[in-house]
Structure formats: C-alpha cells, structure tokens
C-alpha cells in the first residue's frame, strides 16, 4: 500500500519538526511519544506507526485492538491510495476493542497538488470520511501545513473523551453504591419489622389468662 510510511513522516514532522527527503518504509512498527498540557492537565500520546503493506497486516492488527485513536493516512498525490486507506480503517475497526475509538482519515502531500487537484481530492476524501464516520484532515509533512494543528486536535479530542469516560465511570460507581445502600436499608427495615412482630406476639402470650 502506497501510504505505508506516511504516518511516521507526519509524526516526525510534529515531534521533531523535521522532514526527511530520503526515508525507508516502515518495517513492522515505529513508535513515537509526545506530551501535551491541556487545561493544566498532562496528556501523553503514544503514536504507533504500523506498516501499510499487506504482509504486515497481522502485526498491525495487534496494535489496533486497544487503540483509543485510529489514524489512516493516504497520499493525496495518488488518489487511488484513498481506497486502500478506507480498507485499512475498516480492518482496524473490525479488531478494535474500544467501544468508540476516535477515527481520522488524513491526506498528506497536499503540497504536491495544484489548486484544482487539491479541491477535487479534498472533496472526495471528505465525502468518504463522512461515510465511514471519520474526521478528515489534509496536511503536508514537507511544509508542515496543518500538521501541528492536526495532532493538537487529536490530543484535545482524546482528553475530552477520557474526561467523559471518567465521568460515566464515576456515575455508575455512585449509582452502584446507592443501590447497595438502599438494599441494606431495606434489609434493616425488614429485620426491624420481624423483631417488632416477635415482640408483639410475646407480649400477647404474657397477657393470656388460663381458666
């Protein structure tokens, strides 16, 4: 697949502000890590770049399973890679275990297109992204166009998702505690009623006169 190494190039531009004219395709998996500060809170993004060649598909799937964010990149100067990108995204979602991972379709090498070509590919990619419920971005690792903006967007949405999940988890924990306390209270009332009933019967027996 033609876009196999573009993920790493974008990550390299973002993490190190570097662009390599000569590079080797990703073999297996590459890894980068970046720290963010969002509203005073730390957030760490672990970026796994999996090779796009078919022979590495089994290796890649192991990293899809617990991914909170799935980013599939295609080459805007080769629109045919867009079809391959959507296949890889569907493949990743098929094995992902996160309930609703953030998904992105990213077109790179936007600097290689003239204005008319850019508009045409941009429109097509946006339509496809909408169909597969992914957020679409176009970037250029060579010029740095929107690379920083994109990763900041990923970090912001990741933080928002983490906060929502924490709130939901806390809500269910509090609800569970409330249910347990309610059940315990009912048990206490039941036992108290039983005790009162036994006491009343005992009192009746003590007042009974035998002829």
UniProtKB/TrEMBL annotation:
The keyword rRNA-binding does not apply. GO terms for molecular function: GTP binding; GTPase activity. The keyword Protein transport does not apply. Keywords: GTP-binding, Nucleotide-binding. Gene3D superfamilies: P-loop containing nucleotide triphosphate hydrolases (3.40.50.300). InterPro entries: P-loop_NTPase, Rab, Small_GTP-bd, Small_GTPase. It comes from the Eukaryota. SMART domains: RAB, RAS, RHO. NCBIfam families: small_GTP (TIGR00231). This is Ras-related protein Rab-34.
């Amino acid at each position: 697949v033609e876009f196999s190494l573009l993920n790493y190039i974008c990550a390299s531009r973002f993490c190190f502000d570097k662009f390599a004219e000569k590079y080797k395709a990703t073999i297996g998996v590459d890894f980068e890590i970046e720290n963010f500060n969002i509203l005073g809170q730390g957030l760490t993004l672990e970026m796994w770049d999996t090779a796009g060649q078919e022979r590495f598909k089994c290796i890649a799937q192991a990293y899809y399973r617990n991914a909170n964010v799935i980013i599939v990149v295609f080459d805007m100067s080769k629109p045919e890679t867009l079809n391959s990108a959507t296949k890889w995204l569907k493949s990743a979602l098929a094995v992902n275990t996160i309930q609703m991972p953030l998904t992105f379709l990213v077109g790179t090498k936007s600097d290689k297109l003239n204005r008319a070509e850019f508009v045409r590919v941009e429109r097509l990619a946006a339509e496809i992204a909408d169909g597969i419920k992914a957020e679409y971005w176009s970037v250029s690792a060579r010029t740095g166009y929107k690379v920083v903006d994109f990763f900041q967007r990923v970090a912001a949405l990741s933080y928002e998702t983490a906060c929502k999940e924490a709130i939901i988890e806390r809500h269910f924990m509090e609800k569970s505690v409330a249910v347990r306390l309610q059940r315990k209270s009912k048990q206490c009332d039941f036992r108290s009623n039983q005790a009162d009933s036994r006491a009343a019967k005992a009192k009746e027996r003590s007042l009974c006169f035998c002829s």
